[in-house]
Amino acid sequence: MDIEGISLDDELYGYLLSFFSDSELDSMIKSLKRPPSRYYIRTNTIKTNPENLLAALRNRGIEAHQDDALREALWMPVNGPNRINSARKVVIANKQAAESVYIGANLYGPGVLYADPIQVGDEVNVAALNGEVIAIGVARMDRSSMLNRRPGIAVEVMGSIYMMPKLHELSEYRDGLFYEQSLPAQWVSHVLDPMSDELIIDMNAAPGGKMSHVIQLTQGRSRVIGVERHAKKVNQIKQTLERLGINGEVIQGDSRFMDLDRPELVGRVDKALIDPPCSDMGVRPKIFDAKTLQQVKSLSQYQRQFIKTAHKLLKPGGVLVYSTCTVTPMENEDNITYANQLGFSVENVDVPGKSKGIGEFSSLVARFYPHLHDSPGFFIARLRKT
Fold it and tell me: pLDDT tens across 74-118, in order?
């Protein structure tokens, strides 16, 4: 099944039809093609407050607003879809870079896959790997520099399918006054409810958004450990914390084996956060994508390994918050049932605007649907070790 470039194999499509109607599923998948109409950032209250950041953005001529329910959350409208004029030359961006350019970001050298013969100053189109033209702009590098993935702006985007402010170009971004984070993701740290003097582990900490938020909420008075497998992601977390001016412990390792690698932590952790690798079927916007049921099954089993280890690390009465940016029950509610069988009780997630979940704990967990909430697809559950 292919809906506007987003492909699900027949098994996955049939699986999802057992939970959603055909029209619901169609609307959900089509909505993934578009970004939410509001782009959210999180004020770094270690360095500033929402009111001052809001005033600074407005002084730059940026339309910005404060969220009604979450004080540190600010949002800007995303405008579009827009018509893109044709240029004679084309630059092709990788998937991740293309999805940023799609909403108005500049294209940076490391995101370039192909470039026509181009000189600095040429007008160019930016296209995704599937051939879709997503932006028009001015080359700030020549072809050789682009293909060598040189750091810096390769194409300064002048118009894209959807447009919003170029936040990374702002001094407020460089000074660490905010972090780009969707509204459901910002609620995760509040659901965890971190307190001073607690030992807290973020078991999937890259790129550092939720970890930094947890530290921010306790004003640095808790011990927060972030864990990631790969050196590149560890560096990414450290760069995030450094930009935000936030101190935290970052460990390179596989948190599925933390009970073996760090036995001194077993039974001592107050709170844990799991936001594991998932099928990303709630991430917006997607220019193109392909998913299979076998991928979802494998990811679900992988995610359970983190839950099992969290149960060992937490002290009795300790809290685990589990979240994903996907919509499949196999990666969400089924894993909460597994956690309950391990010895976790399921507690209510009190988040404004949420939808109920699916199955046994439907009234307790929180779901956000892209086609209903104008947000990424997202799932949050709060568990307590009994």
Answer: 999 999 999 999 999 999 999 999 999 999 999 999 999 999 999
Catalytic positions: 325
Tell me, what CATH number does 244's domain have?
Answer: 3.40.50.150
Where residue 113 sits, what CATH number does that domain have? 2.30.130.10
Type of residue at 152:
G
- Does residue 81 lie in a domain region? no
Domain annotation covers residue 289: yes
- Could you tell me the two tokens for 194? 């971190």
Distance CA 191, CA 378 (A): 14
Report the domain count for the chain: 2
Structural domain for 312, as ranges? 182-385
pLDDT at 4: 86
pTM score over 0.85: yes
Residue 116 makes CB contacts below 8 A (sequence gap 6+) with 89, 90, 91, 124, 143
CA distance 362 to 359: 5
Give me the residues of the chain with pLDDT under 70, please: none
- Asked whether residue 206 falls in the same domain as residue 342, the answer is yes
